[in-house]
Amino acid sequence: MDMTIIGSRATGVSLNYDVSSLDILYRGRLVELRELAESKKISKSGSVEVLRARLIQSLALQDLDLSWDGIQSMSHNELGEVLKIFGIKSSGSQRERRQRLWLHLNFDSRRMTIEKLAGMDRDDLHELCIRLEAPLTGNRTVLMGRVAGVLTNQLNGWGRIKRSLRRNGIKVPLDSMKIETDEIEDGSLNLVGTDFHSDSPIAVIEDAYDSLVLGIDTLDQVTQEDLRVISASVGDLDRVIGTILRGSGGIWGENQKELLLRLAKRRGWPVSEEIVKSRFMRISTDIAEIRGARIGNFAKLTGNSYLREKVVSETSMKRIRDKMNQASFLLDGTRS
Asked: What does the angle CA 244 – CA 35 – CA 264 come to, to the nearest 5 degrees?
Protein backbone atom coordinates (compact mmCIF):
# COMPACT_ATOMS: atom_id res chain seq x y z
CA MET A 1 0.00 0.00 0.00
CA ASP A 2 1.44 3.33 -1.05
CA MET A 3 1.91 5.61 1.92
CA THR A 4 1.70 9.37 1.60
CA ILE A 5 3.47 11.51 4.18
CA ILE A 6 1.08 14.12 5.50
CA GLY A 7 2.35 16.78 7.89
CA SER A 8 0.99 19.74 9.73
CA ARG A 9 2.80 22.95 8.87
CA ALA A 10 1.52 24.56 12.03
CA THR A 11 2.73 21.86 14.39
CA GLY A 12 5.64 20.41 12.44
CA VAL A 13 4.28 16.90 13.07
CA SER A 14 4.50 14.35 10.26
CA LEU A 15 2.60 11.07 10.22
CA ASN A 16 2.64 8.41 7.55
CA TYR A 17 -0.75 7.28 6.29
CA ASP A 18 -2.52 6.40 3.08
CA VAL A 19 -4.77 9.26 2.01
CA SER A 20 -6.75 7.09 -0.39
CA SER A 21 -7.52 4.53 2.32
CA LEU A 22 -8.82 7.27 4.59
CA ASP A 23 -11.02 8.59 1.80
CA ILE A 24 -12.60 5.14 1.42
CA LEU A 25 -13.10 4.74 5.14
CA TYR A 26 -14.60 8.18 5.68
CA ARG A 27 -17.23 7.74 2.97
CA GLY A 28 -17.80 3.99 3.25
CA ARG A 29 -21.17 2.59 4.27
CA LEU A 30 -21.48 -0.24 6.79
CA VAL A 31 -21.83 -2.96 4.15
CA GLU A 32 -18.78 -1.73 2.25
CA LEU A 33 -16.68 -1.37 5.40
CA ARG A 34 -17.62 -4.87 6.52
CA GLU A 35 -16.57 -6.30 3.18
CA LEU A 36 -13.28 -4.43 3.36
CA ALA A 37 -12.70 -5.69 6.91
CA GLU A 38 -13.45 -9.24 5.82
CA SER A 39 -10.98 -9.01 2.94
CA LYS A 40 -8.30 -7.76 5.35
CA LYS A 41 -9.15 -10.38 8.01
CA ILE A 42 -10.18 -7.67 10.48
CA SER A 43 -13.12 -8.08 12.86
CA LYS A 44 -16.25 -6.67 11.17
CA SER A 45 -18.42 -6.52 14.29
CA GLY A 46 -19.90 -3.34 15.74
CA SER A 47 -21.57 -0.23 14.42
CA VAL A 48 -20.38 1.60 11.33
CA GLU A 49 -18.39 4.13 13.40
CA VAL A 50 -16.77 1.46 15.59
CA LEU A 51 -15.79 -0.47 12.48
CA ARG A 52 -14.54 2.70 10.78
CA ALA A 53 -12.27 3.52 13.73
CA ARG A 54 -10.96 -0.06 13.78
CA LEU A 55 -10.18 0.04 10.06
CA ILE A 56 -8.47 3.43 10.29
CA GLN A 57 -6.30 2.09 13.10
CA SER A 58 -5.52 -1.16 11.25
CA LEU A 59 -5.03 0.15 7.71
CA ALA A 60 -4.04 3.82 7.87
CA LEU A 61 -2.13 3.89 11.17
CA GLN A 62 -0.94 0.31 11.48
CA ASP A 63 2.58 1.37 12.49
CA LEU A 64 1.41 3.67 15.30
CA ASP A 65 1.13 2.42 18.89
CA LEU A 66 -2.44 3.28 19.90
CA SER A 67 -2.52 1.31 23.12
CA TRP A 68 -3.23 3.23 26.34
CA ASP A 69 0.51 3.44 27.02
CA GLY A 70 1.16 4.54 23.44
CA ILE A 71 -1.44 7.29 23.72
CA GLN A 72 0.10 8.46 27.00
CA SER A 73 3.49 8.87 25.31
CA MET A 74 2.19 11.13 22.53
CA SER A 75 2.86 14.86 22.54
CA HIS A 76 0.11 17.45 22.44
CA ASN A 77 0.61 18.05 18.71
CA GLU A 78 0.82 14.37 17.86
CA LEU A 79 -2.48 13.73 19.60
CA GLY A 80 -4.10 16.51 17.59
CA GLU A 81 -2.89 15.07 14.30
CA VAL A 82 -4.02 11.54 15.18
CA LEU A 83 -7.47 12.80 16.17
CA LYS A 84 -7.73 14.58 12.81
CA ILE A 85 -6.89 11.33 11.02
CA PHE A 86 -9.71 9.61 12.87
CA GLY A 87 -11.95 12.47 11.73
CA ILE A 88 -13.07 13.62 15.17
CA LYS A 89 -12.64 16.73 17.34
CA SER A 90 -8.94 17.54 17.73
CA SER A 91 -8.92 20.59 20.03
CA GLY A 92 -8.61 20.69 23.82
CA SER A 93 -5.94 20.13 26.44
CA GLN A 94 -3.46 17.28 26.19
CA ARG A 95 -5.40 15.21 28.73
CA GLU A 96 -8.70 15.87 26.96
CA ARG A 97 -7.15 14.74 23.70
CA ARG A 98 -5.84 11.55 25.33
CA GLN A 99 -9.25 10.85 26.86
CA ARG A 100 -11.04 11.44 23.55
CA LEU A 101 -8.71 9.23 21.54
CA TRP A 102 -8.90 6.37 24.05
CA LEU A 103 -12.71 6.57 24.17
CA HIS A 104 -12.93 6.61 20.37
CA LEU A 105 -10.76 3.52 20.03
CA ASN A 106 -12.39 1.46 22.77
CA PHE A 107 -16.10 2.29 22.98
CA ASP A 108 -19.23 2.81 20.95
CA SER A 109 -20.45 6.35 21.72
CA ARG A 110 -24.07 5.24 21.34
CA ARG A 111 -23.64 2.65 24.09
CA MET A 112 -21.10 4.34 26.36
CA THR A 113 -23.60 6.67 28.02
CA ILE A 114 -24.07 8.06 31.49
CA GLU A 115 -27.06 5.73 31.89
CA LYS A 116 -24.85 2.71 31.27
CA LEU A 117 -22.52 3.74 34.09
CA ALA A 118 -25.31 3.04 36.59
CA GLY A 119 -25.04 -0.66 35.79
CA MET A 120 -21.28 -0.89 36.34
CA ASP A 121 -19.66 -2.16 39.53
CA ARG A 122 -16.97 -0.28 41.40
CA ASP A 123 -14.09 -2.25 39.82
CA ASP A 124 -15.22 -1.35 36.29
CA LEU A 125 -15.64 2.29 37.24
CA HIS A 126 -12.22 2.26 38.93
CA GLU A 127 -10.64 0.91 35.73
CA LEU A 128 -12.38 3.59 33.66
CA CYS A 129 -11.06 6.29 36.01
CA ILE A 130 -7.52 4.97 35.48
CA ARG A 131 -7.86 5.09 31.69
CA LEU A 132 -9.54 8.50 31.76
CA GLU A 133 -6.94 9.90 34.16
CA ALA A 134 -9.53 10.75 36.80
CA PRO A 135 -8.96 10.55 40.60
CA LEU A 136 -9.32 7.01 41.98
CA THR A 137 -10.53 7.70 45.52
CA GLY A 138 -14.12 7.46 46.69
CA ASN A 139 -17.00 5.03 46.61
CA ARG A 140 -18.86 3.71 43.56
CA THR A 141 -21.12 6.76 43.32
CA VAL A 142 -18.17 9.17 43.41
CA LEU A 143 -16.30 7.21 40.71
CA MET A 144 -19.42 7.09 38.54
CA GLY A 145 -19.75 10.87 38.84
CA ARG A 146 -16.14 11.39 37.70
CA VAL A 147 -16.55 9.18 34.63
CA ALA A 148 -19.86 10.86 33.86
CA GLY A 149 -18.12 14.22 34.06
CA VAL A 150 -15.57 13.14 31.43
CA LEU A 151 -18.29 11.80 29.12
CA THR A 152 -20.24 15.05 29.44
CA ASN A 153 -17.14 17.12 28.73
CA GLN A 154 -16.34 14.96 25.67
CA LEU A 155 -19.94 14.90 24.39
CA ASN A 156 -20.15 14.82 20.55
CA GLY A 157 -16.34 15.00 20.33
CA TRP A 158 -15.77 11.31 19.62
CA GLY A 159 -17.53 8.24 18.25
CA ARG A 160 -18.59 9.78 14.93
CA ILE A 161 -16.48 11.30 12.19
CA LYS A 162 -17.25 14.83 11.05
CA ARG A 163 -20.22 15.09 8.72
CA SER A 164 -18.16 16.83 6.01
CA LEU A 165 -15.73 13.89 5.87
CA ARG A 166 -18.56 11.39 5.71
CA ARG A 167 -20.06 13.26 2.76
CA ASN A 168 -17.02 14.45 0.83
CA GLY A 169 -14.03 12.43 2.02
CA ILE A 170 -10.57 13.91 1.48
CA LYS A 171 -9.66 16.28 -1.33
CA VAL A 172 -6.63 14.68 -2.98
CA PRO A 173 -4.04 17.37 -3.95
CA LEU A 174 -3.68 17.94 -7.68
CA ASP A 175 0.08 17.50 -7.47
CA SER A 176 -0.46 13.85 -6.46
CA MET A 177 -1.79 13.13 -9.96
CA LYS A 178 1.22 12.10 -12.03
CA ILE A 179 0.87 12.12 -15.84
CA GLU A 180 3.92 11.52 -17.97
CA THR A 181 3.81 14.30 -20.57
CA ASP A 182 6.67 12.76 -22.57
CA GLU A 183 4.56 9.68 -23.21
CA ILE A 184 1.67 11.87 -24.37
CA GLU A 185 3.91 13.82 -26.73
CA ASP A 186 5.44 10.75 -28.37
CA GLY A 187 2.03 9.05 -28.66
CA SER A 188 2.71 6.06 -26.44
CA LEU A 189 0.66 7.13 -23.37
CA ASN A 190 1.85 4.20 -21.30
CA LEU A 191 -0.92 4.54 -18.70
CA VAL A 192 -3.72 7.10 -18.78
CA GLY A 193 -4.47 6.81 -15.07
CA THR A 194 -1.36 5.77 -13.15
CA ASP A 195 -2.89 7.39 -10.06
CA PHE A 196 -5.95 5.23 -9.39
CA HIS A 197 -6.82 7.47 -6.43
CA SER A 198 -8.48 10.03 -8.71
CA ASP A 199 -11.26 9.77 -11.30
CA SER A 200 -10.29 8.52 -14.75
CA PRO A 201 -9.87 11.04 -17.59
CA ILE A 202 -13.05 11.84 -19.52
CA ALA A 203 -11.65 9.91 -22.51
CA VAL A 204 -11.75 6.70 -20.49
CA ILE A 205 -15.33 7.36 -19.40
CA GLU A 206 -16.45 8.13 -22.94
CA ASP A 207 -14.78 5.07 -24.40
CA ALA A 208 -16.18 2.86 -21.65
CA TYR A 209 -19.65 4.10 -22.54
CA ASP A 210 -19.07 3.44 -26.26
CA SER A 211 -17.77 -0.05 -25.51
CA LEU A 212 -20.78 -0.95 -23.36
CA VAL A 213 -23.30 0.01 -26.05
CA LEU A 214 -21.27 -1.25 -29.01
CA GLY A 215 -23.55 -3.19 -31.39
CA ILE A 216 -26.45 -2.83 -28.97
CA ASP A 217 -29.03 -2.89 -31.79
CA THR A 218 -28.21 -6.54 -32.55
CA LEU A 219 -29.16 -7.65 -29.02
CA ASP A 220 -32.58 -8.45 -27.57
CA GLN A 221 -34.65 -5.70 -25.97
CA VAL A 222 -34.02 -6.71 -22.34
CA THR A 223 -30.25 -6.82 -22.87
CA GLN A 224 -30.35 -3.45 -24.59
CA GLU A 225 -32.14 -1.89 -21.62
CA ASP A 226 -29.71 -3.46 -19.14
CA LEU A 227 -26.70 -2.13 -21.02
CA ARG A 228 -28.24 1.34 -21.27
CA VAL A 229 -28.78 1.42 -17.51
CA ILE A 230 -25.15 0.48 -16.84
CA SER A 231 -23.74 2.80 -19.49
CA ALA A 232 -25.63 5.72 -17.91
CA SER A 233 -23.73 5.03 -14.68
CA VAL A 234 -20.27 4.53 -16.14
CA GLY A 235 -18.90 7.48 -14.15
CA ASP A 236 -20.09 5.84 -10.93
CA LEU A 237 -18.60 2.55 -12.11
CA ASP A 238 -15.23 4.23 -12.54
CA ARG A 239 -15.37 5.58 -8.98
CA VAL A 240 -16.39 2.19 -7.57
CA ILE A 241 -13.44 0.58 -9.34
CA GLY A 242 -11.13 3.24 -7.91
CA THR A 243 -12.50 2.57 -4.42
CA ILE A 244 -11.91 -1.17 -4.79
CA LEU A 245 -8.37 -0.61 -6.07
CA ARG A 246 -7.54 1.67 -3.17
CA GLY A 247 -8.88 -0.88 -0.71
CA SER A 248 -6.92 -3.73 -2.31
CA GLY A 249 -3.61 -1.90 -2.73
CA GLY A 250 -4.01 -1.65 -6.51
CA ILE A 251 -4.67 -5.37 -7.12
CA TRP A 252 -7.43 -6.45 -9.52
CA GLY A 253 -8.23 -10.15 -9.36
CA GLU A 254 -11.01 -12.61 -8.55
CA ASN A 255 -11.79 -11.12 -5.13
CA GLN A 256 -12.08 -7.63 -6.60
CA LYS A 257 -14.31 -8.94 -9.39
CA GLU A 258 -16.67 -10.59 -6.93
CA LEU A 259 -16.76 -7.47 -4.76
CA LEU A 260 -17.60 -5.29 -7.77
CA LEU A 261 -20.47 -7.58 -8.75
CA ARG A 262 -21.88 -7.49 -5.21
CA LEU A 263 -21.67 -3.70 -5.08
CA ALA A 264 -23.20 -3.41 -8.57
CA LYS A 265 -26.21 -5.51 -7.55
CA ARG A 266 -26.69 -3.45 -4.39
CA ARG A 267 -26.76 -0.32 -6.54
CA GLY A 268 -29.46 -1.88 -8.70
CA TRP A 269 -27.30 -2.35 -11.80
CA PRO A 270 -28.65 -5.21 -13.95
CA VAL A 271 -25.60 -7.47 -14.23
CA SER A 272 -27.23 -10.90 -13.92
CA GLU A 273 -27.57 -11.76 -17.62
CA GLU A 274 -24.42 -13.44 -18.95
CA ILE A 275 -23.98 -11.14 -21.96
CA VAL A 276 -24.34 -8.04 -19.80
CA LYS A 277 -22.12 -9.38 -17.02
CA SER A 278 -19.41 -10.42 -19.47
CA ARG A 279 -19.30 -6.99 -21.12
CA PHE A 280 -19.57 -5.24 -17.73
CA MET A 281 -16.61 -7.16 -16.29
CA ARG A 282 -14.50 -6.80 -19.44
CA ILE A 283 -14.93 -3.03 -19.41
CA SER A 284 -14.33 -2.88 -15.65
CA THR A 285 -11.08 -4.80 -15.99
CA ASP A 286 -9.90 -2.50 -18.74
CA ILE A 287 -10.72 0.56 -16.61
CA ALA A 288 -8.80 -0.97 -13.71
CA GLU A 289 -5.82 -1.65 -15.95
CA ILE A 290 -5.88 1.89 -17.30
CA ARG A 291 -5.94 3.16 -13.73
CA GLY A 292 -2.71 1.30 -13.05
CA ALA A 293 -3.99 -1.85 -11.37
CA ARG A 294 -1.89 -4.98 -11.01
CA ILE A 295 -3.99 -7.47 -12.94
CA GLY A 296 -4.45 -11.01 -11.60
CA ASN A 297 -5.76 -14.26 -13.08
CA PHE A 298 -9.14 -12.67 -13.71
CA ALA A 299 -7.73 -10.35 -16.33
CA LYS A 300 -5.82 -13.16 -18.03
CA LEU A 301 -9.05 -15.10 -18.39
CA THR A 302 -11.48 -12.40 -19.51
CA GLY A 303 -9.70 -9.13 -20.21
CA ASN A 304 -8.86 -8.25 -23.77
CA SER A 305 -7.77 -4.62 -23.27
CA TYR A 306 -10.34 -3.51 -25.83
CA LEU A 307 -11.11 -0.31 -23.98
CA ARG A 308 -7.41 0.36 -23.35
CA GLU A 309 -6.75 0.10 -27.08
CA LYS A 310 -9.58 2.54 -27.76
CA VAL A 311 -8.27 4.98 -25.17
CA VAL A 312 -4.91 5.24 -26.91
CA SER A 313 -6.54 5.63 -30.32
CA GLU A 314 -5.98 8.80 -32.30
CA THR A 315 -9.36 10.32 -31.37
CA SER A 316 -8.87 9.69 -27.68
CA MET A 317 -5.30 10.95 -27.79
CA LYS A 318 -6.54 14.22 -29.28
CA ARG A 319 -9.11 14.58 -26.50
CA ILE A 320 -6.45 13.99 -23.87
CA ARG A 321 -4.00 16.44 -25.47
CA ASP A 322 -6.73 19.11 -25.56
CA LYS A 323 -7.50 18.54 -21.86
CA MET A 324 -3.82 18.70 -20.96
CA ASN A 325 -3.32 21.91 -22.92
CA GLN A 326 -6.34 23.46 -21.22
CA ALA A 327 -5.09 22.41 -17.76
CA SER A 328 -1.61 23.73 -18.54
CA PHE A 329 -3.07 27.07 -19.65
CA LEU A 330 -5.10 27.39 -16.45
CA LEU A 331 -2.13 26.50 -14.25
CA ASP A 332 0.12 29.00 -16.03
CA GLY A 333 -2.54 31.64 -15.49
CA THR A 334 -2.70 31.01 -11.74
CA ARG A 335 1.09 31.16 -11.38
CA SER A 336 1.51 34.46 -13.20
From this structure: 60
